[in-house]
Amino acid sequence: MGTLGTLRADSGDIPEGQRLLEKSRDVFAELNPIDPGLWDGRRAQTLLNLSRVLARQGFFDQALDVARSAVTAAGGLGETSSEALTATRGAALLTEAKLLRELNRPEEALAILEEAAGAFTTLLEAAPAIARDLADLALEPGTSLQTAYPALGDILATTAAVLAEAGHVEAALRYAKGAVDLLLPADEGSVRLRAAAAMSTYASLLDQAGDPSAAVSMARTSVQIAEQCHAEGVPDNAGVLWGSCFNLAVDLVHAHRLTEARAVASDALARIDPPSEDQALWIDRMRSVAELDDAEPDPH
To answer: H/E element holding 109?
Structure first.
């Protein structure tokens, strides 16, 4: 019944889809006490789909309540939950975060995004196939699977950046690696560009963690992917390429390879357009590396 409700909503009959999903929710609520291990997953998925249907109609407060019920249902068995149930919980958390943003509650949304990112990263390490299923579950109806990867990759990369700014470098590394692992296999240009950006972030974190050699290797790969996207004319490639080049140059400085660092920075200044926002600042920072003397301080 829940599957039928989702199909009806996806086909355009949203009121009927909502009615069927609500009826399915009520049935599972009655069955759940009999065998939670059997029915929790189906109830959680029904609640998640119902939340999305409500959100499509603009009922964000009601959708948020239902999404939170889905999170609770999917986490009811704790550590004994199946991988699929854990994936459903991650998708429900992602939906909850989106709804909090719609309701202009960004601080609460960020906290939920961190929890969702943690669930996703755990799955990515333990069960890659189920982690890919989470990307599918996180999609709005009618959206292709591929478009989920950048969104989830951005969640992981953004969480890494927030943790790094707070000084939690080791935790940030885990999220950054999750973003790279998720995005890197992609063939589509815009997704590969996001992968380059995620790799650049990961390289900077490796540098901060005290491993400049590994950082340089990762940063070089980031620049190579960004260069390919630049050559293919992928939209917004220049900003990512510029940032990747700058991070590579800085990582080279920290690895005491100043000649290479100056060469990377000089090449970027000669042929790449810096990000349009704070352009003068970006140019000054890159120039500080290009003109760095052996005895001068860190460009950061």
So the answer is: helix 106-126
Gap between the Cα atoms of 73 and 4, Å rounded: 21
Report the alpha-carbon distance of residue 19 to residue 249 in Å, rounded.
Answer: 58
**What distances in angstroms separate CA 84 from CA 106, 192, 279, one per listed residue?**
28, 27, 46
Residues 121 and 118: their CA atoms lie apart, in Å, by 5
DSSP 8-class letter at 295: T
Q: Tens of pLDDT along 124-137?
A: 665 555 555 555 54
- Count Cβ atoms below 10 Å from residue 252 Cβ, excluding itself: 25
Residue 69 corresponds to which amino acid?
A: S
Hey, how many other C-beta atoms are within 10 angstroms of the C-beta on 167? 9
Q: Cα–Cα distance between 43 and 40 in angstroms, integer?
A: 5
Tokens representing 254?
């920290």
Q: What is the pTM of this model?
A: 0.57
Report yes or no: 58 and 14 within 8 Å, Cβ to Cβ: no
The 8-class DSSP code of residue 276 comes to S
Residue 139's pLDDT is what?
42
Secondary structure percentages of the chain, helix, strand, coil, to 5: 80, 0, 20
Name all contacts of 291-300 with Cβ < 8 Å and 24+ positions apart.
291/262, 292/253, 292/258, 292/261, 292/262, 292/265, 294/258, 298/250, 298/253, 298/254, 299/249, 299/250, 299/253, 300/250
Residue 62 buriedness (CB in 10 A; 0-12 / 13-18 / 19+): middle
The owner of tokens 């660092």 is: 261
Q: What are phi and psi of 273, to 5 degrees?
A: -80, 130
pLDDT band at 25 (very low <50, low <70, confident <90, very high): confident
Query: How many Å is the maximal CA-CA distance in the chain?
Result: 73
- Banded pLDDT at 144 (limits 50, 70, 90): very low
